[in-house]
Amino acid sequence: MKPLLEVHQLMKAFEGRPVLKGISFRVGAGEIVGLLGPNGAGKTTTLQMLVGLTLPTAGSIHVDGLDLAHHRETILSRINFSSTYVSLPYALTVRENLDVFARLYGVVNRRAAIEGVLEALDLGSLRDRLTRELSSGQQTRLHLAKALINDPKLLILDEPTASLDPDVADRIRSLLIERSRRTGMSILMTSHNLAEVERMVDRLIFLQAGEIVADGRPTDILKAHEVPDLETFYLRLARSGHGG
Q: How many CB atoms lie within 10 A of CB 215?
């Protein structure tokens, strides 16, 4: 599988304290990969560097064959992200928010793109609602709509179905899987919902204390570490400080 994302020996330290200790991994075109690990493992720092919010201390990030350090603007136009921990402008309507981001990403046919994501995320009836008036679940769907507005090659998701009820969350997962399979969009996602992870991902990367302790298909990881399910493996990782 041709890699769309290549991370090589990525390191990050804050005030001399190492957070990432030289991690390397790939995400293939059209592949859905889960990035998991206990709190403090380095997941958020990794995602922040992938979207250009934080500079690495060392190492490299390549997207679609381009080095993020030298082709930042081009790469950022080809990727997008969704995180419930980042707020969208509350004083804008749903449609206005999407229009702003469509312009930022240089979307050619903004109106069609906006209507497409509004329909896909069932937000059409809320297009003129102020963002501040949305429920937490509606805001989560708006974040996802924003993340799909530029038809990204790489979609980075931080807890993509947080605050969604089970029915809506299930439909969102189906939407993301279908879109990835149909368009070849790659997805790198974090989630504490292990049932969601098992349903969606082709491959898993487990981080612990800034290092990768497991990378492979879920079934292969469970077999290698002799555990019956992801929850058991996750708990072992969180409680023991290593993967096995």
A: 17
